[in-house]
Each structure stands twice: as structure tokens, then as C-alpha cells.
Amino acid sequence: MADTQQTDAQTDDSKKAADSEQAAVSKEAAKADRKAARLAKEIGSFARAHGGAEGKVSYIGEHGTRIVLVGEDGGWGDLVAPTYAIAQSAVEKAGITVHEEFDGEFAAKVRTGPYEWSRMAGIQVGGPSNG
Question: What is the arrangement of strands in the sheet containing 65-71, beginning at the earlier edge strand?
Fold first, then answer.
């Protein structure tokens, strides 16, 4: 009889541990969903300000995943999500077109100004010094 009671106690402990683990997973999933929703809101704001937007999702290592946005007017920007899954969820929620590659046609939509050109050129051609 004692064996049965001990087994029941172990089952209850296992059940409690599983429930606790499931609650933690649900909490993390809810947190990830909220982050994706916030990013989607920012993407939508960018798209409205630039007459629409397209994007590219790129994993950047332990720092997360970058979402590069290019507006219909050539404006561009980026956001960083903590994980690739959150970034994917955000662009899906925002409803933008996502490219697999940052190819020539997509890249040609980007419009850069004098600031970007001087920063890209650096001091080699008279841009601002990095010191």
C-alpha cells in the first residue's frame, strides 16, 4: 500500500512540474507574440509613411534577426528582432512583401542621400573622418 501512495505522490509531482513548464512556455510564447505585434506596428507605421514597404529578413547571429525595410519612395530603415521566428511573425502580421534575397531589383529601390554616400565612402574620398 505504501508503494501505491509513493507512486501517486511522484505522479502528482511530475504533473505539477509539467504544468509549471507548460505555463512557462505559454508565457514565453505570449511575450514573443507581443514583441512581434510591436514590431509589426512599427513596420506598418514605416509602410504608411513611405507609401508601402517591402522587406528582407536576415539572421545576424546571437544579436537576433534584422528586418530591412524599403519604402515605395526609396526610404529605408531596419529593425532588429530577438529571434528569426519573431521577425517572421512580425512581417507576416504587417502584411508586407518579403524578399528572399536583397537582389539588384530590390536594392535599386533604395534611395540614399549625401549623408549615406559620405559615410559609405569614409575618408577615402573626403567623407567625414571616423576619428
Answer: 76-81, 65-71, 53-59, 97-99
CB 67 within 8 A of CB 57: yes
Judging by DSSP bridges, how do beta strands 53-59 and 76-81 pair with one another?
unpaired
**Phi and psi (nearest 5°) for 17?**
-65, -45
Pick left, alpha or beta for residue 74 (phi over 0 → left; psi -120 to 50 → alpha; otherwise beta). Answer: left
Query: CB 71: neighbour CB atoms within 10 A?
Result: 20
pLDDT at 97: 94
Collapsing DSSP states into helix, strand and coil, what is residue 83? coil
- Least confident piece of the model among 9-18, 21-30, 95-104: 9-18
- 22 alpha-carbon distance from chain centroid: 24
- Determine the pLDDT at residue 116: 74
